[in-house]
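User: quick one - fold this with iron/sulfur cluster bound?
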Amino acid sequence: MALSDYIHTFGQSLFALHGERIHKIALDAGFTCPNRDGAKGIGGCTFCNNSSFNPNGPEQKTLEAQFDSGRRAIAKRTRAKKFLAYFQAYTNTYAEVKELDALYRQAMTQHDIVGLSVGTRPDCVSGAVLDLLAGYRDEGFIVWLELGLQSAFDESLRRVNRGHGLQEYREVAVAARQRGIPLCTHLILGMPGEDASHYHTSLDTVLDIGVDGLKLHPLHVVKHTVLASQWRNGEYHPLSREEYIRQACNLIERTPEHISFHRVTGTASKDILLAPEWCSQKWNVLNGIEHELARRGSRQGCRAHDSAARAPLPKTDIAAPSPDGKIKILINSKNATGCQTPPNPVEEEILDAA
Ligand code: SF4
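Assistant: Sure. Structure tokens for the protein plus iron/sulfur cluster:
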């Protein structure tokens, strides 16, 4: 058995829809963040040292160089030949629409790039940006919007200086899905002041608003952050590995099967990670989640509520390769079902470099 026997992974979902392995290549396009430069706030989220999720380190490389190194890294562990350009670092919609269009199109001109995944904040996504992304879908590209929500509790978001609340998320989530843009939402377990009841409510809130993919992360403490000071002062206590695994499994069980997991844990490099130490061992945590679900005899969706509000997007990404090698989307195809297990389950997609 593998983790993908218990969880509907993003990799499985892409394989089922497109008939081949598709991986994300994580990119740093040189954006900043309105919660750092003063537009929304100063200092950023208390846990944020962006190099903790920037695969390219402090040195800014060209997109071409990042694609090359991403392809080489992925080739070591998978035979994927097609990729999504994953705009990951900082706030990847924080520019004029014309500039965004030029940047995204630059990525999509690569011969093996079949779409985009754009990570951003909920308060930084205008209707014009959503129209731009929806337009790429109409051209046949795979497009995902990734929103960092982290918690559905405004008080928790204030506590970490997030600079936005649930309402901004709700508005963008609804507007994106109304345009047929699939949405992946990021949630953090272990936010200061939160416990299991908060995690459950955050997940249920996101499900009720409507979502297509999820990323779960443990909150980890990295150098040069406010959270690092709080941790040193004994004001913040990270989750234990066992507690994270237990809580992540609870959320996985509550998540309907048609929703794909893009990630069920997160890591930081050892040179900046302060705590918890187990956050540097991705496979150890993934294996722990698999073993816990096996021990429970459960899997994703076994405790999900059934609700129309939690249905998949009406416009579902069903795609077939076209002669030009791009992916064409077939709207409302009869194949547009939820969780499907491909002949060769691909679990690596939830292990991308986010
Ligand atoms: S919104 Fe993202 S990039 Fe901006 S400060 Fe928070 S975690 Fe960092």
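One thing worth noting: The first strand starts at residue 22 and ends at 27.
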